[in-house]
Write a structure and sequence with these properties.
By secondary structure, the protein is mainly α. It folds into 2 domains: 135 residues, Helix Hairpins (Orthogonal Bundle), CATH 1.10.287.1150; 35 residues, no CATH class. The longest helix has 24 residues. The chain starts with a helix and ends in a 9-residue tail after the last helix.
Length: 237
């Protein structure tokens, strides 16, 4: 009996409270891109029991948190009775889909980034970066939505402008893959520096020259190490 209890504790030790943030982040990554997490975790999440009578897609928790934040910000307006309940429900459903779209770009936008200046490497489109994947159509592009935690400088924007900004930020010449990081502060650090400038920061001439100098020096060091220690495992830039 004692061994049985210890075995159960051992098998579920990775689910203890201290690992909550890590496991939750893995699950969010699994919902967005199952192949981005280790195979053993993917197998574990695949075996999770479903909810009886519900066949819909799971929604990442960060999207739900953003939606509750949106509701709390607009609680006074909704309580005034100025919008019919059915219309509010439809609007909230679309709002959730917009937040899911934003989250999809943060998770997988780098998979459509333009990293080949010659255009030889043709990347396959990522289906959940298309608004239609989230049941958002052409007629929704001119509608205003809450931007949640998106750092575009406005709490509400037209969907078309949101999509354009997301593509500039995450699908341009810089591909950023950071949503697997467990620490929310680090993820916010990336977002606060990339999203306001659409991943195109403007630096003074001296700063650009300094960056070029450091990159050139780093490239020279890489070539030296490659020729000096061929075949030796090392971490490159």
């Amino acid at each position: 009996m004692h061994e049985s209890i210890m075995e159960q504790l051992w098998q579920t030790s990775h689910l203890q409270g201290g690992n909550l943030a890590y496991v939750e982040q893995l699950f969010e990554t699994y919902l967005t891109d199952p192949n981005a997490i280790p195979e053993e975790w993917r197998s574990y999440f695949d075996k999770l029991p479903g909810v009886e009578g519900y066949n819909g897609r799971d929604v990442v928790h960060s999207t739900i948190r953003d939606q509750f934040e949106h509701i709390s910000r607009n609680q006074r307006f909704l309580a005034s009775g100025g919008v019919p309940a059915s219309a509010t429900s439809d609007a909230d459903k679309k709002q959730i889909r917009v937040l899911q779209l934003i989250n999809a770009y943060r998770f997988r936008g780098h998979q459509e980034s333009k990293l080949d200046p010659l255009g030889v490497w043709q990347r396959q489109p990522v289906e959940d970066l298309d608004p239609s994947f989230h049941e958002l159509g052409q007629s929704d592009l001119d509608l205003e939505f809450q931007t949640g935690s998106l750092n575009f400088g406005s709490e509400t924007m037209k969907l078309g402008d949101i999509v354009d900004g997301l593509r500039q930020t995450y699908c341009g010449s810089i591909g950023a893959e950071y949503m697997h990081v467990v620490d929310t502060r680090i993820k916010r650090w990336f977002q606060q520096r990339m999203e306001p400038v659409r991943s195109r920061p403007e630096y003074e001439a001296n700063t650009r020259k300094h960056i070029l100098e450091r990159l050139t020096a780093a490239e020279g060091l890489e070539k030296y190490l490659g020729s000096r220690y061929p075949g030796v495992k090392r971490f490159g830039l």
